[in-house]
Amino acid sequence: MTNLFLTGTDTGVGKTHVAALLLRGLVAAGEKPGALKPICAGERDDAEALFAACGGAVPLNTINPVWYRTPVAPHTAAMVENRPVDLALIRETFAQLRAEHRSLVVEGIGGWLVPITRDFLVADLAAEFGLPVAVVVANRLGALNHTLLTVADIRRRGVPYAGYIFNEIDPPGDVAQATNRAVLEEVLGEAPLRVVESGRREPLEPLR
C-alpha cells in the first residue's frame, strides 16, 4: 500500500507529475489506488492528470471536489469568487476514498503553508488527514532553503514525515542544480525517497 500526502516546496514544483507517476506505478503493481486533489484553482489539469493516471477508476469530481476558476491561493480564490471553501465536502471525500481504496495519493495545493481559509492552511489539512507527508523538491535555485523550511515545519507540527522526492525539472544547467541533491542529503541526513528524472514517463515504483 502507498498512502501519501504530497506537498511541495512551492507551486509549480511538479507535485502533479510525481503524483501521476506514483499512481501509475500502483496501477502497474495491481493496485486500484484512490487519488485526491482537494482544491484546484485555475485550470483543472492537475485533477485530470490524476484521473488518467489511476485509470479513470475514481470520478473526476471525487478526485477534485472543490474547483475555483481563479488561479490563486484557495483563500484568495474564495474571496474573489465569493464562494467559501467547502471543507466539509473535502473531509467527506477524503473519508470516502480512504474507505474504498487500500492506497491513496493526495496532492496538496501549492506549498505547505498556503492558506485554504484565513485560519486553515494546507499544513492543517495534511495534519487532519494524518497521511505521511512527502515533499516534492524541484531542483532549482532556492531548493535548499525552501526544502529545509518545509521539512522543519512538518516536523515541528508533529505531522508524519515520509521524506522528500527530488524532481529533476531540467538537466543541470548551473551550480545550484548540480549540487542541490548532494547538499540536501548531507544537511537532512537522508537520501530522497525517489529521484524523478526530467521528462520521465515510466511509472514510479510504489512507496511502501
Give a description of the structure.
This protein is an alpha/beta fold and about 210 residues long. The chain has one domain: 3-Layer(aba) Sandwich (Rossmann fold), CATH 3.40.50. Helix content is about 40%, strand content about 20%. The protein has helices at about 15-30, 45-55, 60-65, 75-80, 85-100, 120-130, 145-155, 175-190, and strands at about 5-10, 35, 40, 65-70, 105-110, 115, 120, 135-140, 160-165, 195.
Which structural traits does this protein have?
single chain, 208 residues, alpha/beta, 21% strand, globular
Helix content: 40-55%
Radius of gyration (Å): 16 Å
- What is CATH's topology name? Rossmann fold
- Portion in beta strands: 15-25%
Overall tally of structural domains: 1
**Envelope shape:** globular
Largest sheet: 6 strands, parallel
